[in-house]
Amino acid sequence: MVAAVCTVVLLVRPGHAWPLLLAANRDERADRAWDPPGRHWPDRPGVVGGRDRLGRGTWMAMRGGLIAAVLNRPGSLGPLQGKRSRGDLPLLALDYPSAASAAEAVAQLNAAEYRTFNMVVADADGAWFIRGAGSGKPAMRGLDPGLHIVTAHDPNDPASPRTIRHLPHFQAAPAPDPDASDWKAWTGLLQDRSGPRGAAINVPIEGGFGTVSSSLAGIGADGRALWLFAAGPPDEAEFTLVTLP
C-alpha cells in the first residue's frame, strides 16, 4: 500500500483565472522507494502522478485539469494485511470526467476494504473532500470557496495541531500567481520546519520518517494545468515543472 500526502492546502476561488491552487507536502518513510511524477500507468492515458514502487499506486496524480490526492487518517499509517491499497484511489478518481463525478464514485466504495483515508479531488469547477472511516460508505462534501488545509483530520479541523499552526499563515499569505511563476509565499510556508513535530508542516527525518517531497499545482479556468514538484524536502530540493500531456 502507498502511504499518503500528509498535508494538502487548497485555495478554491470560483471565477478566478486560476480557480484552484494546491500545495502539498508528502510525509513517508525515507527508505520507501518511489518515482517522481510521470506517466507510470500505460493503461491510464493522460494520467501523471508520483508512483510508490511497493504498492504501485500514487499519493497524488493529475489528468488534464483534474487532480486527486490521498492522505491517511490518524493511526492508519502503512499497509495492513487484507486491506486494499489506498494508492489506487487517486487513479480510480481520475477515471472520471470531473471532480464532482469522481467524488461521487469514491463515495460509493466500500470503505471497509481500505484503511481509513482522506481524499481531495478538484478541478476548475470546485473541490471535494472524501473521508473513508473504515466502514460503510465514504462521506463526501464540497469545499466552500476559500482556503483549506487537509491533514490526517478533516479540512480546517481544530483537532489537527498542524492545521491550527499553519492555517492562519496560509490565509495571510499572498496567493501564488501562476502566470508570473510566483509561488514564493507558499514555497516559504511549505519549507517551515518550526514547531513541535506533530505541528510541523515540513517534518525533519527522524526515526526514518519525515517529509520526502513537495508539490505546487494550479488549475486554470481555461483548461491549463501545472505542477511543480520538489523531489525531496522543500527546503532542500528545487521545485521543477512536471511535464503534463
What's the short version?
The chain has helices at 88-93, 99-106, 161-172, 184-190; strands at residues 5-12, 20-29, 34-38, 47-52, 60-63, 66-72, 117-123, 126-132, 139-142, 146-150, 209-219, 225-230, 239-241. The protein has 245 residues and is mostly beta strands.
Fold and architecture overview:
This protein has 4 helices and 13 strands. Helices cover 13% and strands 34% of the residues. The protein has a single domain (5-241), classed as Penicillin V Acylase, Chain A.
Which descriptors would you attach to this protein?
7-stranded antiparallel beta sheet; 245 residues; 6-stranded antiparallel beta sheet; mainly beta; Penicillin V Acylase, Chain A
Strand content: 25-35%
> Which overall shape is indicated by the principal axes computed on the Cα atoms?
globular
Overall mean pLDDT: 94
Largest sheet: 7 strands, antiparallel
Strand order of the largest sheet: 3-4-5-6-7-8-9
* Number of H- or I-type helical stretches: 4
The beta-strand count equals: 13
| N→C terminal distance | 27 Å
Record the SSE blueprint.
Blueprint: E1 5-12, E2 20-29, E3 34-38, E4 47-52, E5 60-63, E6 66-72, H1 88-93, H2 99-106, E7 117-123, E8 126-132, E9 139-142, E10 146-150, H3 161-172, H4 184-190, E11 209-219, E12 225-230, E13 239-241
Antiparallel strand pairs: 1-2, 1-10, 2-11, 3-4, 4-5, 5-6, 6-7, 7-8, 8-9, 11-12, 12-13
